[in-house]
Structure formats: C-alpha cells, structure tokens
Amino acid sequence: MPIEKENDFICPFCSLHCDDIKVTNKNNNFRVTNISNQKCIQKIEQYNLNKKSIIWPKIKNKKSDFSEVIKKAKNIIKLANEISVLNLGTDMGSIRSMLSFSATHNACFDHINSQLFFNTMNLVQRSGYMSTTLGEVKNRSDVIMIFGNQIIDQHPRIIEKFLLPKNSFAQNVKKRKIYLIGNYSKSILNNFKHDKRIIHINFNIELISLLINSLNDKTYSSSLKIKKNIFEELLSNIEKSKYSVFMWTGSDFKKSDNYQTILQSISNYVLHLNKQSRAACLPIAGSLGDTTSNQVATWLTGYPARIKCSNNFFNHDRFSYNVSRLISESETDLVIYVNNFYREKIEINPKIKNIILGHPQSTFSTTPDIFIPVGIPGLDYQDIMFRTDNVVSLALKHIRDINLPTVKSIFDQLTE
After folding, report:
1. pTM greater than the 0.90 cutoff
2. What is the DSSP string of 42-85?
3. Cα–Cα distance for residue pair 266/44, rounded to 1 Å
C-alpha cells in the first residue's frame, strides 16, 4: 500500500508564494494538511489530475507522442513570418528560455496581464510613488486600506500571513486597523465578522479618487455615499497613524476609465502624509507569475513586456507588441501560449496558427492546433518565482512525478 508522505510546499498559485504549507502526496494526488483557509486549499488542490486532465500531447485534438509534436511544432514555426509568445504564467527558468526562443525567431513576447503592470508604471514614470514591502507592512504598519474587491479572493492568506500575523517585530497587531474599501462578498466578510480590527466600508471603487481627495482636504462629501461618522473615523485613524499603507490590485480596475486618476490621487495623498508620518503604496500583482515575468524580462532585455527582438536587440512598444491586441486583430500568424497556472478558457483566434504549452487542466475556446501538456513548477519540478513586492525570490520544490516536460525543456527544443 502506497505511503502517504508529507512534503513542504511553496505555493506558486498566487503572488504571495507562501512557504509554510505542507501537503501529503499519495499516488500523485496531493492534499493540503496544515492550513484551514478553504479558499487557499481549493486553489492548490484544483491542480490534482482528474478524468478531464490532458496528459498526452495532441495535434488537432488527436493524441500523439512528444517527438512527433515537437517535429510538427518546428515545422509550423519555420513557416511563420510573425511569431508571438504570450505568457499566461510560468517560472523564471521557463521565461529565460522563452526569451531565448524569441531572440532566435524574432518573436514578440508579452504577458497576459502586462496592461495592469503598465497602468502602475505610468504613475511611476510620470511622478514616481512611495512603495513598501509585505515585510514592512507585517512588522510596522498600523492602518491599512485595501481598495477594491479582489485582493483577498486572489490572495486568500494575505490577512493571516502579512496583515494580521501572529507575530510582528515592531507593531502591536492587536491595535492594527484594516479597512476593506469596496463591495466585498458575504463569504469573504463572514471570515472576519468577529474581528473588530477589520472594518468593511461598502464603497463604489470608481469614487476612490473622490474619497482620497476628501481625506486630504479633511472635508466630508455626501457624494461619497458613505456615512459621515465612517468617514470621520477613517480620517481620524489615518491622522493618528504612524505608518499607513494603501493597497490595491490592478485587476479590480480592468474596466475602469478612471484608473490613472485613482492611482495618482492615492500617490499624492501618500506623499502628503509623509510630511508628518510614514505612509506608502503597495500594489499587489496577480496570480499568473506577473512579477516573475516582469523581473526576468527586465534583467535580460531592459524591458518587462511587449518586446520584440530584431537585429539582435530587443525593442519595446506598448502598442505594436501588445500580443493580446495582435491576436484579436489577427496581426500575427503564429501564437505560442504558455500556461502553468491560468484557469480560465484560453481564447484562441481560429484564424491564427497556435501552439499551447499548458498544465493538464487547461481549457480552450476552440481546439488548438497543437497542445503540449507541461508540468507545474512547485509540483512537478523545481524552479524560482518572485513574490509580488519584488524583494523575495522563492525556490519551488518538486513533490509529484507525472512525467510531463517543463516549459523550459520544450522551448529549448524549439530553439534548436
């Protein structure tokens, strides 16, 4: 009878990359054993193999072997004039090989969430902003404002690990105040209903700049659509704070026409607060290896995304090399998708040739020309990923054996 072995697990499935998780592995079926956060457990265990998992490479939905698929993929690449590589989330080693391939084949390289990153970069390039780290938040902050609805959903353990930890070096966590400013679901709020340190302010996030400007002016406005006593309590706690932190995630503002104004107002308020105390911004990146992709691409090319190699140099253009736009407007004739973590359907333009390197649970809007199942870093092989605040890299482990290749190994073969 197989022994159920317990393993240390560094989670690759959100940008916190928690390193205190333990899992058991029996017949390559893994189970989280030492945490109680059900959302987090679900995010991890959904990558267990099941009857719908695709563990064999396919050419036009017909099962094939790896050598035949690689040969077919090389032929498609050879015939392509404009190649685009779209990163839907992977590890450091894989990105290095993807960039090497892009250099060899003069391909565009982009990340699916690059627009969210550039929205923040626009602020940095225009005026700069004062940022902090999760370690600083954990140990020093006393008032934290979380704007938007998705941070806790995407990062289920962020409160227990960093915002209200059991241990904090310099700050009495029992006195910390956390404001959830947005329209949070009842399921999330129920987890914190007995903790008086966490205060929910039901709020239209499109009005964040108005709220920030009202706090800055110390003037209540009925246009905020919150009660005056709530506004005054928030203002009082910020003014008494020795270290306030303002957090958000870009995915909350994907459809907003007001995002740049919101970010600028937060940044300006943080600068104002720093005249008398300490305050900082902390954007939280998504769960698709956004930070890892940006870091590695910047080291190797000088640019984080939306790049193309020509004449042995990588060039950057936010419009011309936006791979999502190239796909939707059919301005490329081959797209290679890389997907270690993405759980939504991969949107395929049937007019464009495509090769997908994806985890076994990958789903598609239409049948891909070639699908190559690949292992998942942290489960099926070792590699490195970067935490959302850019200051910590974590070495992912190998805890199961399902004999799938890595993204790196496939791109190395395609580059030959």
Report:
1. yes
2. HHHHTTS--TT---S-EETTEE--HHHHHHHHHHHHHH-SSEEE
3. 33
Residue 323 · residue 108 · CB < 8 Å: yes
- Per-residue pLDDT reduced to its tens digit, 191-221: 898 999 999 999 999 999 999 999 999 999 9
User: Which letter, b or e, does each residue of 356-380 get, where b requires 16 or more Cβ atoms within 10 Å of its Cβ?
Assistant: bbbbbbbebeeebbbbbbbbbbbbb
> What DSSP element (H or E) covers 237?
helix 228-240
Q: Which of 109, 104, 111, 112 is nearest to 77 (CA)?
A: 104
Contacts of 285 (CB under 8 A, 6+ apart): 15, 113, 117, 249, 250, 291, 388
AA identity, residue 218:
K
Q: What is the pLDDT of residues 9-57, one digit of tens each?
A: 999 999 999 999 999 999 899 999 999 999 999 999 999 999 999 999 9
Share of the chain above pLDDT 70, in %: 99
Give the span between the Cα atoms of 327 and 218, in whole angstroms: 47
The CA distance from 46 to 343, in Å, is 10
With a CB cutoff of 8 Å and minimum separation 6, the contacts of 167 are none
Tokens 């203002």 identify what position? 235
DSSP-assigned beta bridge partners for residue 353: 334
pLDDT of residue 389: 94
The SS3 call for residue 184 is: coil
